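From the pipeline queue, job 12 of 40. The input is one protein chain; the requested action is below.

Action: predict structure.
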Amino acid sequence: MPHYTPDAIAAGIIAEGEHRGITEKGICIAISTGLVETNLVMYANHADPESLTYPHDAIGSDANSVGVLQQRAPWWGSCYDRMHVEPSAGMFYAELVKHDYNSDAHTPGWYAQQVQQSAYPDRYDERYPEACAIYDRLKTTEGPPVMAEIVLEYDSNIVPQETGYWCGPASAQVCLNIRGIHVDEATLAAECGTDEGGTDYVALIERSLDPRLPEANYTSVDAPHDPPTDDEKTQLWDGIVRSINNGYGVIMNWVAPPNNYPRGIKGSPNPSYGGGTVYHYVTCAGYDSEYPGRALWIADSGFQPFEYWISFDQAATLIPPKAACYANLPHPTTGEPAPDYARLGYEQLCGPVDPATGYGTGWPQLGTNAAGQNLYVVDALSDILHLLEQGKTSDHPRTAAKTTTADGLDYIGLSYDQLAGARTSDGYGHGWPQLGGRTVTDAVAHIKNVLSQQPGEPPPFPTAARREGDLRC
């Protein structure tokens, strides 16, 4: 499996250009240069021995030229910069901007040649259309971005670890702080079994997370292959996105040799790793799915600047042969908005709402009044009472109490009015006149008593009177 794909290299060139404010034309000039020099392949070279210690996919032999842009010592920065995409592209752009590269006075390839000083200057223009196509393809997204960049909130002041070996507890502390829970590092260290040798395994950190965040279903997943397989990277990304989108941080157990120290992107400086291979825990608290190649936001307790962006691809290479621990939850569903049950409940009593007025239009299956209007439930119930007692329907207008709030109609209040009668100064409904001063519930009870010939209030309708202390009627 290659360390870099051509698309990943092109994405890095694009990202560095955007960070520096380089125009689309300038970025395409840089991509065309990479196409001519190496076909967007990362080259090491035996003539530059240090280059062999960095990730590469081919070995060249053109003098001591290395990297995607075939840059040479001592003119092009450090070997680290030459052998990593963004720093390498950054050095190219630093030279390109010394020329008026957006001018039409020369061809795009001419400006590339001013930087590269190649023996074959015409080749840059030949590959320029291809470079533009790569740029368009990598910058094109289908549909609106969905949560393109999300960083969870936490207290940045707690990120630095309190001892040289408490990176595991410190990472757990950030994850808990994201959820509004503060636990001191010493307590977390005791729970995780952390000693001066550190925390033995990422799953031990679950001892601190699971009891306090049982709903998160934190799960530790091994990363046995170095570099990880495509399937492993896909599963890792999916786990990170699910965890972050649900509001939970991700803990990563990194192994960072000198040739793969974390590199800051999106304007972040490189964290100050050093002293040989670093074994370390960090917290991932965010991601950017639209950044070319994708990016992760890292809260790093051990190395300044303590917070930075790193490419997802590099983070995936830092985890093997250790593991990562994330909240194993399903993807949150956006779906349709939750039903407006207050309005739906009102409509059951008063019929579908008229958009022009906000009030119900009645139900045709309940019949109509003298004005031809569909009846509300309370008015249809009045008709039932009249039919039972007098053999005819009532003659009344459709009932509609008017209650509003500052935000519009108060459907909860309107529904209560329909069931209990229009509210009076005491805030309660006292029944409907057409129901004999009864509430809907009491009218239904009266009908049941009449139909079942059970003892009840005799017809005709009694005088409306509120029962002492009874707020139901």
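Job complete. Residues 123-139 form the longest helix (17 residues).
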